[in-house]
Structure formats: C-alpha cells, structure tokens
Amino acid sequence: MAKAQDKILKTQEITLNMGPQHPSTHGVYRCILTLDGEYVTDLENVMGYLHRGMEKLAEDRTYTQFIPYTDRLDYLAAILNNVGYVQAVEKLLDIELPERVEYIRVIVSELQRIASHMVYIGSYALDLNGFTGWMYTFRDRERILDLFEMITGSRLTLNYPRIGGVSHDLTDEFMKGLQELVDDLPACFEEYDGLITGNEIFQSRTKGVGKLDAETAINYGITGPNLRASGYCFDLRKNQPYGIYDRFDFDIPTGENGDSYDRFIVRMEEMRQSLRIIKQAMKDIPEGEIMAKVPKVIKPKAGEAYHQIEGAKGWLGYYLVSDGTTKPYRNHIHSPSFVNLGVYPEIARGGNIQDAVVILASIDIVLGEVDR
Amino acid sequence: MEKLFLNLGDVIRNWLFTMGMGDSLVNLIMVVIYVAAILSFVLLNVLYLVYLERKLSAYFQQRLGPNRMGPRGLLQTTMDVIKLISKEDIVPQAADRWVFRLAAIIVFIPAVMLYAVIPFGSGMIAVDLNLGVFYFIAISSSTTIAFLMAGWGSNNKYSLIGGMRTVAQMVSYEIPFVFSILGVVMLTGSLKMSDIVAAQSDVWYIVLQPVAFLIFFIAGTAELNRAPFDLPEGEQELIAGATTEYSGMRWALFFLAEYSNLVAMSALAVTLFLGGPAGPLAPSWIWFVIKVYIMIYVFMWVRWTYPRIRVDHLMNLNWKFLLPLSLVNILVTGIGIKIFEWFRP
C-alpha cells in the first residue's frame, strides 16, 4: 500500500522562455519565466538581441551624421530622439535658435508623442487580445504619419530636426491637415475610451496588476508616464523646461495606484495634454527662418554637454563629450525603455502568465531603445 | 421547395430500389449519402465562415479585409486551403508522434458527429434520437481529449499550458452549459430534438428562458474556445496554445473543427431557443440557415469586441456566477411549471 505522503499531489516549477520570438515581447526581448502552474514565481530579463553598438558607432560619425541613427532608437518616437540629440549638440555649440524652429519642434514633438502613445494604447489592447482597439489606434496614427510624410518624406524613421533648425518648413497643406487632425482627435480618444478604457474585462485585467509604488519606481530610476502613474508628478517639460515648453499651459496627469490601469490612463490623458500644447503652438507660431546660423563643419570646442528631454517613454538624455574634432569623443544615451524595463521582474512576480504580458505591455518598451 | 431535400432523398432511394438493390443495401447507401451531404454542408460552411470572420473583423475594425482573390475576395479561403495543403507537415522531433498526429484527426470527428442530431428543416434530421440533446453534449465535450492530446503530444510548454487550460475550461463550463439546457428540457419534457422544436410552435424558448439563453451563450462561447474565452489558444501569452506546433493541413483540421463546432453550437442554440427551423413564407431549411448565421454573427461580434479574460477570472465567473445562476434558473423554471399546471383548466 502506498504511503499517505506519496498520495499528496506535488507541483513542480517549470522554466519557460518567453521570447526572443514571441507575439507579446514587443520585439526581440526575452524573459525567462519560472512558473508554478500559471503563476510566475520568478522572471529574469534577457536583453541584447538587437544590440547594434549605437554609442560606439557615434564615435566614428560626425555630429550631423549621427542624427539618422537616433531615429532607430525609439523608432516609434523618432522625432523626439532627433530633438533630444540636436538640442544636446546645440548646447555643446551654444547656438541661439530662431523662434519658428522652437515652435515647429514643439508641434512635431507633441504630435510624435501622441503617435507613440497611440501605438502603446493599441498594442496594449492587442496584448489583451483586443485586436479591434489596435486597429483603431493605428488608423488614427496613420493620419499623423501622413502629416509627417509631408514634411519629412518618411513615415517611421523620421529624420526632421537638424543641428540649428529643422530640415523643411511647415507647409500650408501641413497646417491644414494638422488643423483637421486636431479637430478630430478628441473624438478618437473618446472612441478608445469607449472600446478599451470602459471595457469591464480590460479593467479587471489591469486594475491592481503590476503595482509599482513611487518609492520603488524612483529607486529603479523609472521615469516618464510610468513614474507619473505611480503618483509622482515629475515631467521635464515642467520641472526642467527645455526649448520653449515654459510658454505653454498644460497639466501633468498622474495616477494613484501605480498599477497597469493607471499607466494606461496616464498615457490616455497625456495625449489630450499634448493636443492642448499643439493647439497653443499652432496659434502662436511666428513666421521666420527655420535654420540658425550654423557653421558648415560642426566642430565644437573641447568640452562636454548633457541634455535631457521628456521622451514618449521617459527621460531621454544625450551626454556628448567633444575633443575638439568633428566627431564626438563619446556619446552616451540614457534611454528610458532600458531603465524602465529593469523594474519588470519586480512587478511581474506573483502574477500569472497573462499578467506578465499585460505588465510588459503597460511599461511601454521599444526594443530599439532597450538594446541601442 | 419546403420538401426539396426530403424529396431528393426519396428520389435517390426509389432509384436505388429500381436498380434492384435490397433493403439493407439501400439503407447503407443512404447513410453514406447523408454523411456526404452533412460533410459537404459543414465544409462549405467552414469555407464561407473563414471568409465571413475575416470580412466581419475588417468591418468592425474599419478596414477592407481580403479583396484580391476573386470578386470581393471571395476566393480568399480557396487560396488559403491550397496554401495549407501545400505546406510542409512538420512533426517536432521530440513530440509524441502518434499522439501528436492523432489529435488533429480526433478533433475533427466529434465536430462532424454532432450534426447527426441537428434538425436542418422540418423532417430533415439524420437521426432523431430520443436523447438528442444528451448526445450533442456528450459528443461535443469529447473535443477536450483532442486538445489535451495536442497539448501533451507537442512536447512544448506553451502547448502543455494550452492543453491544460482547455481541460479546466471545458470541464468547468460544461456544467452551466448543461444546466442552461435543462430549463428547456424541463419545459418540453423531452430530450428529443424534434420534440423541442415542435414545443416552440407558439412561443420561442428565448422568451420563456431568457436567463438560460444568456448562460447558454456565455458557456457556449467558452466551450467553443472563442474570445473572450479563447484561453486554450491565448495567442498573446501562449503563442497558439495547444496548436502551436501544428502546421499545414493538421493545423487546418483544428480550425475546421473550430468552425464546424461554431456552426453546430449555433444550430443547437437555434434548435433550443430560437424555434428551430420554423418560420413563415420561406422553406424551413432557409430559415434554419438564416437563424444559424444570426447566431454566428453574434459570436463573431463578441469575439472582435472583447479582450481576453484572465484564467482565474474565467473560473470565478463559472463557479461563482454562472453555476449558481443556472441552478436558480432551474429552480424558478420548476416552480413556474408547477404554478402553470395548477392554473391550467
């Protein structure tokens, strides 16, 4: 006869590799899950499948030549990367920009932020199997990409800002299209709210999932919407204004619980605030030059400059060291996705495998930026 | 028109008799013809449903859907089938080969067997069993085995989790599913499909049993593994769940079964709650198809609107909500029947 002890059901933990090829890892990211049934007892980040050595490449390119490389970092917010980089170089060169350039940069940056958040909202819905939500956001993002195509010629790896200005002026056609878009966007946001935010299943799957309190978030160096969702109001556009952001009137949305739902809501609200900024910028934009007086060959004096902007995913910083040649001696990039991903194992433990997918979607990573 | 298919059957039967065949041989041939007819009905439906699903999802998502192959993309599924047939049939090296191979076939068998008891029109039922409803439930629940075999045989952890989820989900949802049907059976007093249809000649059971219909619909969606209950597949977390390792025609068999089950489930809903094939003016079998497609439309509508439910919520919904509700429904139906009997002259 079998002993009583042998009859007790034993569970065994299994190791499951999620990624680097997996529908929900948002790129070539891999996490090693330790599962007890469906519950995640441990999670380990594995990155580097997309590593291209961007920072090292920068050392062999001129300052101007590196602009297109920044597109490929966070490829969903290419213009924000461009702006961050060119502003860092401008800081190094100490250049004064024409007014119109500053306004144009604000308009395109905020448009890009909306476009990036739309991908977030859509792919978040998709990770919960809400395919229709994904299609809705991509439908509206297309219109923003159409506008970008008018002024930059490309749709994804936009390469628009230049050191000292921007490559093309905003056309009348662009401004007309922008006006129509600005008029239509509130209705689109309403639609997302109706389809995704207000959905009972969506709420039950995201509320209380992947909680991150402000203290842990700060300890991990989390920035951007993820930090604000944890209830800590910090936005570089307000706290450390760069460009002309101090001239605009907008709010910084924050969350209360720091869960996956709040991270979603904060971004929904951020899109509305970005829209407010665009409207103000459109009203005030002056005529004028789109390029400052910049030397043909950019050769900063030996020294260093650090500049950080509020990217779509958090602090985006460029640290440039010049040795007086045409090429940077060192170009270090602080990429928000990489830092934000660090907290993923911490908040995914204890949930189930479906929660792990939701949490990964909620922290909004782009692998181009994680791996640089 | 009404008796088109019945007359067609009689013509063939008489023709076989004039050929000088014996009784048993004719019956045997007729069974083969019935099976062939049902199979072609199922396959034609599946062919169209794949197209319908893609077109409907496109309309829900404000895009076009397939529109290149044939007029309005109508040949898309034909091309898909050609593609699937010509694809390489991969069996993973570490898989349990026989279990893996058999699963794809086993999943399709109950999906076809279900149609034996479905009344396609008045008098158009292959076998009018005394316990037709019971037969349907018994056969439809055996799909679980195929999914478990696929999940286990693939030797893939994603598949295994998918297979386990299928078992948990099917076993759980079977209970409120059956209980919701009980209300109808209590009103009819019979498990026979033709009796249930006949009993609805005055009023459809969706009016008398609205709660049961709701439970039936929810549990039925779960039984079909359709969103928001498509956890066994669970693309976002399990890639394709139990069917991850399947390719080409074997994979297609799973989907054939899925869509075939969808038609069968809709047909059962029509039979139990929507008055079966009955309807004015047009022949009954046309009404049957119309009603079935209304049900299918609702299933698809739900699928393309809702996100997927979480696995523990799935269990909670079943055990803490649907099951008690279905029991209450049975109680209320029983009391209602008694009260009705008292006041009946």
Automatic annotation (TrEMBL), chain A:
Under the heading InterPro entries, the entry gives: NADH_Q_OxRdtase_suD (IPR001135), NADH_UbQ_OxRdtase_49kDa_CS (IPR014029), NDH1_su_D/H (IPR022885), NiFe-Hase_large (IPR029014)
Q: Domain NADH-quinone oxidoreductase subunit D spans what residues?
A: 127-301
The primary location reported for this protein is membrane
Q: Which SUPFAM superfamilies match?
A: HydB/Nqo4-like
Membrane topology recorded in Swiss-Prot or TrEMBL = Peripheral membrane protein
The reaction(s) annotated as catalysed by this protein in its Swiss-Prot or TrEMBL entry are: a quinone + NADH + 5 H(+)(in) = a quinol + NAD(+) + 4 H(+)(out)
Q: Which Pfam families match?
A: Complex1_49kDa (PF00346)
Q: Does the keyword Membrane apply?
A: yes
**Its EC number(s):** 7.1.1.-
Q: Which GO terms describe its cellular component?
A: plasma membrane
Q: Where in the cell is it found?
A: Cell membrane
Give any GO molecular function from the UniProt entry: NAD binding
Entry-linked PROSITE patterns:
COMPLEX1_49K
Q: How does the record describe its quaternary structure?
A: NDH-1 is composed of 14 different subunits. Subunits NuoB, C, D, E, F, and G constitute the peripheral sector of the complex.
Name the protein family: Belongs to the complex I 49 kDa subunit family.
- Name it: NADH-quinone oxidoreductase subunit D
Q: Gene behind this chain?
A: nuoD
UniProtKB/TrEMBL annotation, chain B:
> Superkingdom, according to UniProt?
Bacteria
Q: How does it sit in the membrane?
A: Multi-pass membrane protein
Q: Which GO terms describe its molecular function?
A: NADH dehydrogenase activity; oxidoreductase activity, acting on NAD(P)H, quinone or similar compound as acceptor; quinone binding
Q: Which residues cross the membrane?
A: 25-51, 102-127, 133-152, 173-191, 203-222, 251-273, 285-306, 318-340
- Which UniProt keywords are present, listed alphabetically? Cell membrane, Membrane, NAD, Oxidoreductase, Quinone, Translocase, Transmembrane, Transmembrane helix, Ubiquinone
Q: What is its EC number?
A: 7.1.1.-
- Give the UniProt subcellular location, in the record's own words: Cell membrane; Membrane
**Could you tell me what reaction this enzyme catalyses?**
a quinone + NADH + 5 H(+)(in) = a quinol + NAD(+) + 4 H(+)(out)
GO cellular component terms listed in the entry, alphabetical order: plasma membrane
Q: Which InterPro entries match?
A: NADH_UbQ_OxRdtase_su1/FPO, NADH_UbQ_OxRdtase_su1_CS
GO annotation, biological process: aerobic respiration
Q: NCBIfam families, alphabetically?
A: PRK06076.1-2 (NF004741)
Q: Which family does it belong to?
A: Belongs to the complex I subunit 1 family.
Its subunit composition reads: NDH-1 is composed of 14 different subunits. Subunits NuoA, H, J, K, L, M, N constitute the membrane sector of the complex.
Instruction: Give the protein's function.
Output: NDH-1 shuttles electrons from NADH, via FMN and iron-sulfur (Fe-S) centers, to quinones in the respiratory chain. The immediate electron acceptor for the enzyme in this species is believed to be ubiquinone. Couples the redox reaction to proton translocation (for every two electrons transferred, four hydrogen ions are translocated across the cytoplasmic membrane), and thus conserves the redox energy in a proton gradient. This subunit may bind ubiquinone.
- Name of this chain's protein: NADH-quinone oxidoreductase subunit H
